[in-house]
Amino acid sequence: MPSPPPKLLVTGASGFVGWNLCQAAAVNWKVFGTTFSHPIELAGVNMRIIDLRDFTALRTLFADIAPDAVIHTAAAKDPNFCQENPIESHGINVDAAVNLAGLCADRKIPFVFTSTDMVFDGTSAPYSENSPTSPIHVYGEQKVLAEKGILESYPEAAICRLPLMFGEAGPVAQSFLQPMIAQFKSGNVVNLFTDEYRTPISGRVAAEGLLLALEKTHGILHLGGSERISRYGFGKLVVETFNLNDTSINACRQADVKMAAPRPPDLSLDSAKANALGFAPPSVAQQLRELSSLN
CB within 8 A of 247, min separation 6: which ones? Predict the structure, then answer.
């Protein structure tokens, strides 16, 4: 009789990254997903509703599931929300992450934490894993605190810094791609920065990278895309791929749009370390073509 598949706990399963990850992981793992404010059902995934800020509930969940590995994707990800609600966002972005690392350390099981390219200030790209962190807003500061707390608690943990992500929308979470396409279709003005650069990947590619990190590494790992592109350049590719009208594009600069949280200008990641492990993101154009074929 074959042995049962190992058990993977994915936090934030209703979020964009978590939803993509659960589907990718279900091929080789028995997946348990957590949700809080947005319960969903996902075929092949055992869902649990929990407030990850409640350590007693978290400890009970671990005792109940006895996971063989954990990937923590749950977070308050909106920089503007974190800027205006630093105490509330700290609970999930820092405290819950460090507590999860400690529980995994107690059991000596693999733990992957999803961090962000926003731990940098955007003035010295491309950034490698050895580049000093330099966040310019609360969200970035919280991710740096979480990274440090996790590695102090569990040096064998993997910290995966993710770039800007796009992709297929889940039941309750979408990427920035869906509202961008909706704006193009409605004819509304779409403000796209010519002076903000990232190394974007799709949610599916991000999931592949996280599972690779779970199996092959620990410490900090960058999972950036294969090319550096501006928001404006990305928007032009979207228009071309989805056969949209680009007359509504307003090429602008970051300084032209007022936002609660400041925005780093260039967060391009150097992902050579991940590439050496087998992480090989397709071009942005190819990833967008794959998404357009799903519609």
Answer: none
